[in-house]
Amino acid sequence: MNSRQTKPETLIARPDADGNGIDGSQRAIRDAIRDAIVDRRLMPGTKLTETDVGALFNVSRTLVRGALQALVHEGLVTVERNRGAFVANPSPEEARQIFATRRIIEPGILTEAARHMTPSHFRQLREQLVDEGRLMSERGQSARRAEIKASGDFHLMIAAMTGNAVMQRFMDELIARSSLVISLYGQSTVSSCGHSEHTEIVDAIEAGQLDRANRLMVHHIRHIEADLDLRIRRANELRDVLLP
Amino acid sequence: MNSRQTKPETLIARPDADGNGIDGSQRAIRDAIRDAIVDRRLMPGTKLTETDVGALFNVSRTLVRGALQALVHEGLVTVERNRGAFVANPSPEEARQIFATRRIIEPGILTEAARHMTPSHFRQLREQLVDEGRLMSERGQSARRAEIKASGDFHLMIAAMTGNAVMQRFMDELIARSSLVISLYGQSTVSSCGHSEHTEIVDAIEAGQLDRANRLMVHHIRHIEADLDLRIRRANELRDVLLP
DNA sequence: CGGAGCTCGATTGTATACGATCTGGCGGAT
DNA sequence: ATCCGCCAGATCGTATACAATCGAGCTCCG
After folding, report:
1. Which residue among A5, A34, A134, B68 is least packed, with the fewest CB closer than 10 Å?
2. In this complex, is the C-beta atom of B119 within 8 Å of any C-beta atom belonging to chain A?
3. pTM over the 0.85 mark
4. Do the beta carbons of residue A42 and residue A71 sit within 8 Å?
């Protein structure tokens, strides 16, 4: 059972990502590629040839280049001059920086979001938790993917509740890059432990124990990071292994 | 006396902004426009016609479009479909969100940076403070501009000391947008008060009083924001005033 | 048999071309 | 005189064209 068929990110109100930067086709391409990366359908290091992508969407290289450039900005794609664009292959150091940034930002976001939370927001969060739980119990690659995605969505949902578009965009980027990192360095077994931690966090917020919620959040992020194996760099591209 | 003649941002090691996204001419154009915006040489609402900009740099519209798109991503430029690109005209709400985000992020950055600070770093900060002081005592528009710029550089310098490129890039964006906001909504008189606050912050860090430094930083940011007049929207484009 | 150099195909970087859309002015009708 | 519609110029959106660069395989020589 594939858990996604429509545009996945309609779940969370994306604040138009970059204000009103790019339009129509270009945005569609960008979003499609981003989803594919975050979902691990495109493995890190995969080459994104402009002509090929353009052919898939029936557009010229012009629009593809625009979409790729946007993804470079988000850290999901890298380009090497005269060689082309590739799905990003974050280094262990970069992974550490991403999670360090999350540990700094997310408590602040939680605090700000808590100030705006209504019963309706809590209902939304509880639904998300139920979804996560359901995915956790399923087997198979696609469930695993959906689980990573859902886990990220939880954090994005909280960011959205701050009503702060600037922070929301930062979180969008951080979560997307985190998904990429997890897909690269995540140990096979778990990431499931995260679910109960999410529940605890919501419980704490709802109980008005904001300090506790913040501590849980930091702990949770540290927990996700601890589940990575950053010792070795997974080899997706020979060049990355052979010449550093 | 114009305080800038060479590329201004060479002062602070920009971590290649977007990894290694765009190259050569395109980056030069982007940086030139960004500097002009942050420096208030380009007022909010100014139209950035692709052909004109291209003529200035002797490049085709292709590269200009790329540079403008990058600036859209950073929130310094907005584009309206079939109408063109304009220097961003942040709303009061957007301004609030930018500063709210800074209040959340910067204490974390300060804490992280403090862990990495060496005597050489403190020397760098002290030099920056001296520069700020010098600019503060000067008169005239260009000194005012340089002062805003220098004040932002202080915060960027601290961000650079975290060694965290992800956070540094976020701060780059926040500081640039802050400069734009200040140029729009800043009251005429002050912003000078910021200087002594910077000094106090460095003093506190050097004395090992990290908590105090963090409190001073938050206070400082709140102080900058308090100096804005967000009640009215300065009219640079009629459309922004007439149809809210 | 192995390696240096070369040529060719594939792909990117940049410029240009062309159709679409908006803006502003002119002229005719009311 | 005012308002509406039309036309022209300017500007953008997208596609295409052309040059530059890279990489692979081939050949040729040692």
Report:
1. A5
2. no
3. yes
4. no
